[in-house]
Amino acid sequence: MWRSRTGRDRKTVVCIACGSSVLRSEAREYDKEGDRWNRHGKQFEYLCKGCHRELCWQPRGELESLILDIEQDGLPQSEFLSRYLHAVEDRYGRPEE
User: Fold this and answer.
1) Is the pLDDT of residue 1 over 80?
2) Which pLDDT band holds residue 58 (cuts at 50, 70, 90)?
3) Which of 15, 42, 38, 39 is nearest to 26 (CA)?
4) Which residue, 7, 25, 81, 83, is the most exposed by fewest CB within 10 angstroms?
């Protein structure tokens, strides 16, 4: 016999975007790998419904790997943004003015 899902739905999770605590039943799963259907061995993060609606649904392409390449602990935001700009220009060229 299948167990009731009631207990799972009463669990509280934290939205990774805004930090709000919401019931799991009021949240949306977020899989940074982009493959939420392959569930084996994964731990999902969650977004509240409001933040989920505000997501950009455009393809991310290689964004995750680009960020991981330039990311470093303790890196000031200005340096991160400078590295990001240069990495994007190296991969895709300068934007048209």
Assistant:
1) no
2) confident
3) 15
4) 7
CB 47 within 8 A of CB 55: yes
Nearest residue to 50 via CA among 19, 12, 5, 6: 19
Q: Which of 20, 17, 19 is nearest to 32 (CA)?
A: 17
Residues 23 and 11: beta-carbon distance below 8 Å: yes
Report CA torsion sign: 37, 43, 49, 51: negative
The pTM of the full predicted model, rounded to 2 decimals, is 0.52
- pLDDT at residue 95, rounded to an integer: 77
Residue-by-residue DSSP string for 2-15: PPPSHHHHT-EEEB
* Phi, psi torsion values for 14, nearest 5 degrees: -110, 130
Residue with tokens 């899989």: 31
pLDDT digits (tens, 9 = 90+) for 4-38: 555 555 799 999 999 999 999 999 988 777 666 77
